[in-house]
Amino acid sequence: MHSGASVSLVGRKLFHLPSGVAIVSRAKRYEQLRDLLAERIHRGVYRCGDRLPSVRQWCREQGVSMTTAQACFAALEAEGVIEARPRSGYFVTTPTNNTPLPQRSRPEQRPVLVSRWKQVQALVVGSAPHQPRHALANGMPDLRAKTLLPLQRLLTQSQRQASLTQFAYDSLAGDAELRRQITHLMSHSGCMRHIDDVIVTTGCQEALAIALRLLTQPGDVVAVDSPAFYGAMQMLEARGLKALEIPTDAEHGISLGALELALEQWPIKAIMVTPTCNNPLGYSMDDERKRALVELARRHDVAIIEDDVYGDLAYAAPRPRSLAAFDEDGRVLLCSSVSKTLLPGLRLGWLAPGRYRDRALHEKYVSTGSSATLAQGSVAEFMARGHHARHLSAMRNQYRLQRDQMRTWVHQYFPQGTRVSAPSGGFMLWLELPEGFDSIALNQHLAEHRLEIAPGPLFSASGKYQRCLRLNFASPLNDDTHAAIRLIGDCARAQLLVVS
């Protein structure tokens, strides 16, 4: 473990406390309690964002007076370890973490054919004889959230009450009420669309695939942010397209300067980006850069495929604006789904194809036809009743706290020099380890422990990012997860020791 622990024990010193709190005669006892509580926080008994026992509970548990308990809490609050929230009690604060962000990417400066399907297949299908103990490698949200229970009831009720007529083919564009709810959701990102501008798809994956088929022919060049979602990269491979990876920064997003040079040099037919809560880097481009990106595409008369699947999980409120919000001539094709916000097994997504609507409907028809019906109605009702908004609020808060805890564990247990992303939303961390590290070799070793990470080369057309990896922090973090991250960090350190 290197020196940057998440919460250090509070130094033994006196603090200025609120008037009326007498601590002179009990200083030694309150300091002992202060150190005890700080140690519990340090060991993960109480984690970032957790509510602590009330002052009264702490009195009973430790057998001390209210004055001593108050002095203990006041000392930790003065140190910044805990914070008081009005009418709610004391909570563990987010620890200061000065871990640097990953460096700006340096991909190949020419279009290349995508490969690495075998590695992606092993990650998606699974090659180990036993399922991994933790969903650290995949893109699964938290499926056990209590705020999903109303959706579960609606789905059960829909199946129980469904008549055979409800299993007939649906409208090609999808359920009208669901599309209406989707337009409401899109409006939160500044994207104002009519329900006829939205097409329901079988997940975001189909939306992206339709968009690519609309805009490209085999052999064409598509500009992508790099690193990029491996599922999108595999769509390029399946269609015989070349990826031109554009340097991307973990804080500001795709390099507009590098993209402009690429547009001047290569016959790019489409730009495919995830500008909000990016997967895997986690950044959200600011409004000025998004507007500039859309304007750049307009000047070069190129369409943009916007993957917004994580956008509704942005931690900040209001949620960031989409690229489509700045689109004035229909060149942005916005793709999203409920796979990352609700349940991936619903296979419900949508495409707002702008000027390409009629052709998109035709592509939808020849690929899958109409979508499954029952889930559409249930999700529409879930949204209309306000359950979806409450669920998003709960998940944003949960994922933000778990991001902070996961970054702290990485800072504690991974090799010194490890760089970690600071996502603005979603539930993915991108790690960049020192030279000599091999994420694919690490993954092979972790299989012995029934653990799995997403190796960095999957996120590149040319196999870059060998010393990078992605971790999922969606599921509630517990002692078992803590131990898993510690083991992964230990294995990474051992690998680098062998290399050196």
Key terms:
disordered N terminus, Arc Repressor Mutant, subunit A, 4-stranded antiparallel β-sheet, 9-stranded mixed β-sheet, 500 residues, 13% strand, 39% helix, Aspartate Aminotransferase, domain 2
Can you characterise this structure?
The protein is 39% helix and 13% strand. By secondary structure, it is of the alpha/beta class. The protein has three domains: 27-92, Orthogonal Bundle (Arc Repressor Mutant, subunit A); 144-388, Aspartate Aminotransferase, domain 2 (3-Layer(aba) Sandwich), CATH 3.40.640; 391-499, Aspartate Aminotransferase, domain 1, CATH 3.90.1150.10. Strands 3, 4, 5, 6, 7, 8, 9, 10 and 11 form a nine-stranded mixed β-sheet that branches. Strands 12-13-15-14 form a four-stranded antiparallel β-sheet, covered by helices on one side. The chain has a two-stranded antiparallel sheet with strand order 1-2. A hairpin with a 3-residue loop joins β6 and β7 (253-254). α1 packs across α3 (66-79), α5 crosses α12 (374-384) and α6 (176-187) packs across α12 (374-384). Residues 1-27 have low confidence and may be disordered.
Q: Gyration radius, to the nearest Å? A: 25 Å
Task: Please give the domain count.
Answer: 3
Class per helix and strand makeup: alpha/beta
Write down the secondary-structure element order. Answer: HHHEEEHHHEHEHEEHEHEEEHHHEEHEEH
The name of the CATH superfamily of the largest domain reads: Type I PLP-dependent aspartate aminotransferase-like (Major domain)
Quaternary structure state of the chains depicted: single chain
Q: Report the helical percentage.
A: 25-40%
The separation of the N and C termini measures 18 Å
